[in-house]
Amino acid sequence: MNQSAKITILGAGAIGCTMAARLKLAGCTSVSIIARGENYQVLSEQGIYLQDLTGEHHIIPDRVVSHASALEPQDVIFIATKSDALIHVYEDIQSILHEQTLVIPLINGIPFWYFYQNTTQDQIKPIKCLDADQRLIQHFPLSHLIGAVVFITATLKSHGRVESKNPYLLILGEPSHQVTPRITALQNIFTDSGIEVRISETIRDQIWTKVIANLSSNPMSVITGATLKDIYSHPYLQSITREITREVRQVAASYGARVSIDPDTFLKLGSEMGDTRTSMWYDYQKKQPLELKGIADAVIELAEHYDCPMPMTRHICDLTQYLSEQSRKI
């Protein structure tokens, strides 16, 4: 697989637009975006404007469509939506799959497929808050799935206009914890993209690392309005952040995950992100539903299985949910 691969990005928010722009800058010749509504209109007419550490770029995707059915079968499909949207998009992509298509959800939190390791659907333990009726486990194209952990901080200023102030990192891994030819081929398309891509044989360990980052910062940002720098370093907030980090690490360890970054280093790295605001804070400002199921609810559900207490995490998430519900009533 190389830059001639047919690539589709479903979702044109900050991550989707950044991914499309960087792949086009890498020389990929068939990058399509599936967008809806005004997003579709703007991207069709104006393309993507990306400002990042490498400068300012104006990128025109090869195709912008409103439905997957407008495309031929694709080699790679990146799903750059909120995790809640997966239930609405898996049917949409069926028409653009071929036998070798790779499907990579670029989502935060614990994924619905966490317990999938190339087993049959009826053998997969569901995470109830993510897939209560097991529709995703039963119908999502799991054999095409590649796990991903996204360390891309980008802000959507307006439709198609994205700003990012930090380096890009994407970690890819097979659910089976193997390094396969297909995942190596997928890594190759990012050559010269400006996105560092690492392959992990233990993708679930990487997922937990990102979950700790999300759960220790996103809800706190809604409650306090603080940036990452203050969330991880301000004396009034750091003790709370440290305790959430400790609680989530305990859950991760219960499931055999190894988080290589110790809490002190985690706080240091978080504070070094500077005056960056979380995506959840932006969603809260826009009075949009918050992405708490994968980031918080799933972790708490998994914790209950091993009787792991998470009092601080629960309190902070309850406050966050309350504020979100109240803001959307106004």
Descriptive report:
With 330 residues, the chain is an alpha/beta fold. The protein is built from twelve helices and twelve strands. Strands 5-2-1-6-7 form a five-stranded parallel sheet, covered by helices on one side. The protein has a four-stranded mixed sheet with strand order 4-3-10-9, covered by helices on one side. A three-stranded mixed sheet has the order 8-11-12, with helices on both faces. Strand 11, helix 5 and strand 12 form a beta-alpha-beta unit. Helix 6 packs across helix 12. The longest helix has 22 residues. The radius of gyration is 19 Å and the shape is globular. The relative contact order is 0.12.
Which SSEs are present, and which pair or pack?
Layout: E1 7-10, H1 14-25, E2 31-34, H2 37-46, E3 48-52, E4 55-59, E5 63-65, E6 76-79, H3 86-89, E7 102-105, H4 135-139, E8 147-151, E9 155-158, E10 161-163, E11 168-173, H5 181-188, E12 195-199, H6 203-224, H7 228-233, H8 235-254, H9 263-271, H10 279-285, H11 293-305, H12 311-327
Parallel strand pairs: 1-2, 1-6, 2-5, 3-10, 6-7, 11-12
Antiparallel strand pairs: 3-4, 8-11, 9-10
Features:
alpha/beta; 330 residues; 12 helices; 40% helix
Strand content: 15-25%
Q: Quick one: overall form?
A: globular
Question: What's the Cα radius of gyration?
Answer: 19 Å
Uncertain parts:
none
Domain Ketopantoate reductase C-terminal: 203-321
InterPro entries: 6-PGluconate_DH-like_C_sf, 6PGD_dom2, KPA_reductase, KPR-Related, KPR_N, NAD(P)-bd_dom_sf
Keywords: Oxidoreductase, Pantothenate biosynthesis
Protein name: 2-dehydropantoate 2-reductase
